Amino acid sequence: MKKNVLLFIAVFSLISIPAVAQEVTYDVDFVRKKIQAGKKEVIEKNMVLSVQEREVFWPLYLEYQGEMKKVSDRLLKVIEAYVEAYETMTDKQAKILLDDYYDVEMKRLKLKKSYVKKFRRKLPSKTVTRYFQLENKIESIMKVELAASIPLVY
């Protein structure tokens, strides 16, 4: 598992480093596909699912990831706006960006809570808890990487 997590961190770094270097361009869809493949591999290796549970879990997982992508797209826009305004940011821009960031975080939490309910309707609670523990661990790794690459406003 440690090898898979390290691979995931390395892939995620591809998106976090260019996020603050305006000169560098990157293919978000390509990077996202790499991240999703690494993430799915980590989830697959760490979930203990029966055949019936797999048939229920994976379509729901894909649905959830699709919805979470929409939220992540919004976060990416906030980060890009931050990068553009970083060196000349006004108080007004800082307020808007911070408010937008917390709006994204609220949407992320609301989406998680709604999908916990959906997963629980079809899978045992221990299985659902394990899955969301994995999601939270992966998200924490991504947040640390992202935080390390985005400088504090001055």
Comma- or semicolon-separated keywords:
154 residues; 5 helices; 84% helix; 0% strand; disordered N terminus
The largest β sheet comes out as: none
| Count of all domains | 1
Report the uncertain regions. 1-25
* Total strands: 0
Q: Over all CA atoms, what is the radius of gyration?
A: 17 Å
Binned strand content: under 5%
Number of helices: 5
| Broad structural category | mainly alpha
- What overall form do the CA principal axes indicate? elongated
Helix residue percentage = over 70%
N→C terminal distance: 39 Å
The ordered string of helix (H) and strand (E) elements is HHHHH
Plain-language structure description:
The chain is 84% helix and 0% strand. Helix 1 runs antiparallel to helix 2 (28-46), helix 1 (2-20) crosses helix 5 (125-149) and helix 2 (28-46) runs antiparallel to helix 5. The longest helix has 35 residues, at 51-85. The protein has 5 helices and no strands.
SSE layout:
Blueprint: H1 2-20, H2 28-46, H3 51-85, H4 91-122, H5 125-149
Helix pairs in contact: 1-2, 1-5, 2-5, 3-4
What is this structure, in a nutshell?
This protein has 154 residues and is mainly alpha-helical. 84% of the residues lie in helices and 0% in strands.
